[in-house]
């Protein structure tokens, strides 16, 4: 541990963990942010068109494979309405989701390395190109059908290691965090997530309609064209942001550099005014909360479709309306309401703190609200290796950042999400599925608030790692919940488990 400075101050989880000079984000202007938001919408449309048809095509292929070894049903009976087919479809879809998440975890590390090596725009372009290749393979699988088609679709997910939704979201979140000011970063990330959900909502609706009117193969062909158009848009419209030169030396080579995002959750050691050492677990606890939240509610979008299909006999159009409504409401909430809540909530926290300070006559500054102007007085963080590195002073002495309300929002949104998800177990009629689908988004924003919080705990050079770390936690939780649900069988058992 390095020796204390002459005028140390106490620090806690409200103080940024790595304080370094911030880049001039304001030079890009709002126009670039709008281009990035449009990019999020377009790419989300590309990723979402096949989601509803994917559930239906797995059901058809499982049904075809089942009757290759079983006799056809009697006249008047629904061909695919067999309990074994429903269970096999649930397992096949869950395996697809689990493999997507597993390979997506690897894609996070690959994308994080690409961002540092070649820049965020190149990483974003790569993350959109390889899904187009995957769609070409999936087109062949859908045309093959049966067990061969199921296997082809599942194996095509290996391409996700090179490029997929996880890497695209990491790249675009990193891009937005680079072009926005710190005070508006949480709201901008919420808007980006909202635009992504609006794109997903449009895609879900379009995917169901396209498959009904033009056949089950058409959505996969349309998606291939959309990914190609998205690549062209990114290449032409988004300005390039050079790679950060402030790469931490402690992760300068080998496996440690590749696995750098995991070190974000390592407890930090601080020196207090009285000379005592204190460990801060802010990032670790934040990650644990995000993990548990996704673990409890991450399977809901797929569950809504499967439950509607098997219990209320929803087709691709009904499922398209159902999941489109959910994503559309979530997108509107995150784009229009969430930034206002964050802004008003932060103002309320500031006024509350000032009122309390005026009553008590305290002279101390609001460390939870202001980044310390004299950073040279802070005790340095112990580096990850044996080298001692002082904290670099910040030139932004009047920069005001607060994540007290962001943390409060994260806590209460998780609670609201749990309550609304539990209400889904009481659904008994088809129209109630649409009601639950419309209400669930009002607990959204946990991920955006968590990302905004952790970004204020690190330096500019650590932003990609911080976003990758949160995304990794979300994906591991998604993989865990998908694996658990995979063994539950028919969807009514899943609903009862809520």
TrEMBL record:
The chain crosses the membrane at residues 32-58, 92-112, 149-170, 190-210, 222-241, 285-308, 320-339. It is found in: Membrane. This is Major facilitator superfamily (MFS) profile domain-containing protein. Pfam families: MFS_1. One of its GO terms (cellular component) is membrane. PANTHER family: MFS GENERAL SUBSTRATE TRANSPORTER (PTHR23507:SF13), ZGC:174356 (PTHR23507). It comes from Coleophoma crateriformis. SUPFAM superfamilies: MFS general substrate transporter. One of its GO terms (molecular function) is transmembrane transporter activity. It is a multi-pass membrane protein. Residues 383-396 have a biased composition (Acidic residues). Residues 380-399 are annotated as: Disordered. Keywords: Membrane, Transmembrane, Transmembrane helix.
């Amino acid at each position: 541990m390095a020796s204390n400075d002459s005028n140390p101050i106490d620090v806690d989880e409200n103080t940024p963990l790595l304080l370094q000079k911030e880049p001039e984000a304001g030079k890009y202007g709002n126009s670039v942010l709008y281009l990035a938001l449009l990019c999020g919408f377009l790419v989300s449309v590309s990723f979402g068109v096949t989601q509803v048809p994917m559930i239906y095509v797995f059901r058809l292929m499982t049904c075809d494979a089942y009757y290759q070894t079983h006799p056809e049903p009697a006249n008047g009976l629904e061909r695919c309405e067999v309990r074994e087919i429903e269970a096999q479809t649930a397992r096949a879809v869950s395996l697809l989701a689990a493999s997507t998440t597993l390979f997506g975890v690897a894609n996070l590390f690959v994308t994080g390395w690409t961002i540092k090596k070649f820049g965020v725009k190149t990483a974003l372009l790569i993350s959109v190109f390889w899904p187009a290749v995957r769609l070409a393979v999936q087109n062949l699988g859908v045309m093959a059908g049966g067990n061969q088609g199921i296997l082809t679709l599942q194996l095509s997910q290996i391409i996700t290691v090179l490029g997929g939704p996880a890497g695209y979201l990491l790249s675009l979140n990193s891009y937005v965090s680079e072009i926005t000011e710190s005070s508006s970063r949480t709201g901008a990330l919420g808007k980006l997530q909202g635009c992504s959900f609006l794109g997903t909502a449009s895609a879900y609706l379009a995917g169901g309609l396209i498959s009904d009117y033009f056949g089950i193969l058409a959505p996969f062909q349309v998606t291939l064209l959309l990914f190609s158009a998205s690549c062209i848009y990114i290449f032409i419209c988004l300005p390039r942001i050079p790679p950060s030169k402030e790469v931490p030396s402690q992760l300068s080579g080998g496996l440690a550099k590749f696995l750098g995002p995991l070190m974000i959750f390592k407890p930090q050691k601080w020196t207090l005014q009285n000379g005592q050492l204190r460990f801060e677990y802010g990032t670790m606890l934040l990650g644990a909360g995000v993990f548990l939240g996704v673990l409890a509610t991450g399977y809901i979008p797929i569950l809504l479709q499967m439950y509607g299909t098997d219990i209320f006999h929803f087709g691709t159009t009904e499922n398209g309306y159902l999941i489109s409504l959910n994503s559309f409401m979530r997108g509107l909430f995150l784009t229009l309401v969430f930034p206002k809540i964050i802004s008003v909530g932060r103002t309320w926290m500031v006024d509350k703190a000032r009122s309390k300070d005026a009553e008590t006559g305290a002279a101390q500054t609001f460390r939870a609200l202001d980044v310390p102007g004299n950073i040279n007085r802070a005790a340095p963080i112990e580096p990850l290796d044996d080298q001692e590195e002082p904290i670099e002073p910040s030139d932004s002495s009047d920069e005001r950042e607060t994540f007290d309300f962001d943390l409060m929002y994260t806590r209460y949104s998780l609670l609201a999400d749990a309550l609304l998800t539990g209400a889904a177990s009481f659904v008994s009629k088809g129209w109630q599925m649409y009601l639950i689908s419309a209400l669930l988004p009002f607990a959204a924003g946990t991920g955006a608030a968590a990302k905004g919080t952790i970004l204020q705990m690190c330096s500019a050079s650590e932003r990609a790692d911080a976003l990758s770390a949160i995304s990794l936690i979300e994906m591991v939780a998604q993989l865990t919940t998908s694996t658990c649900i995979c063994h539950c069988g028919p969807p009514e058992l899943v609903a009862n488990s809520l």
